Amino acid sequence: IQEPLHEFFSTSWSADKGWSTSPKYRTNVLKLDPKGKNDAHRASIAWLLRHDIIDTKDAASIRKLTEERNRIAHEMRKFATGSNVLPFESYFPELVRMVTKIDKWWTINVTIPTNPDFDDRDIDESEVQPGSTILLQILEQVALANDVEAWKLYN
Q1: What is the pTM of this model?
Q2: CB atoms within 10 A of CB 45
Q3: What whole-number distance in Å separates Cα of residue 101 and Cα of residue 95?
Q4: Are the C-beta atoms of residues 10 and 24 closer than 8 Å to each other?
Q5: SS3 sequence, 26-66?
Q6: CA of 109: how far to CAs of 59, 77, 85, in Å?
Q7: Helix (H) or strand (E) holding 99
Q8: Of residues 147, 150, 123, the one with CA closest to residue 134
Q9: 145 — phi, psi (to 5°)?
Q10: Spatial contact of 78 and 86, defined as CB atoms under 8 Å apart
Q11: Gap between the Cα atoms of 7 and 155, Å rounded
């Protein structure tokens, strides 16, 4: 959620520091943090909402997925020992849906229009499938021990 926005508003990159935080990123994204703390995650959700890329249900879903990710990270020992069960099957499809929705918007509205390789080409937006989606679908099938479906997606 955060990375594409940070890259989009950055004006320079270096091998040791990556993308620099530009003043435009601070004013166009970070200032949108509802808590006023310039938190990149909350601000990015607000930016996506403001630009109608996601709706309020999507924002709530992202917050829920983030809470679940944080819970898993903080309780990893319980998951590793089997005293807690990972809720993979219930959360991963929603994660894939959200990543697909956001990445597809970026591909259609930023990547394609700014890439001269796509000049004078008709793009069927319904056919656009971000690479991140394909990778997540493969990971999902592997995690669910569905190797046959994973190989179909890969090939």
Answers
A1: 0.82
A2: 23
A3: 10
A4: no
A5: HHHCHHHCCCCCCCHHHHHHHHHHHCCCCCHHHHHHHHHHH
A6: 20, 42, 39
A7: helix 88-106
A8: 150
A9: 60, 35
A10: no
A11: 30
Alpha-carbon distances of 135 from 68, 100, 126, rounded to whole Å: 21, 11, 18
Say which amino acid occupies 82: G
CA–CA dist 21, 13 (Å, integer): 9
Which residue(s) pair with 19 in the sheet?
Answer: 13
What is the residue type of 18? G
Strand-pairing partners, residue 13, are 19
Q: Which helix H or strand E contains 13, and what residues bound it?
A: strand 13-14
Residue 79's pLDDT is 66
Given a contact cutoff of 8 angstroms between Cβ atoms, the answer to whether 130 and 104 are in contact is yes
| Residues lower than pLDDT 70 in the chain | 79, 85-86, 88, 143-151, 153-155
Q: How many CB atoms lie within 10 A of CB 61?
A: 18
Residue type, 65: L
Which contiguous run of DSSP H or E holds residue 79? helix 76-81
Which residues neighbour 134 within 8 Å (Cβ) at sequence distance 6 or greater?
A: 153
Per-residue pLDDT tens over the stretch 91-114: 888 999 999 999 999 999 999 999
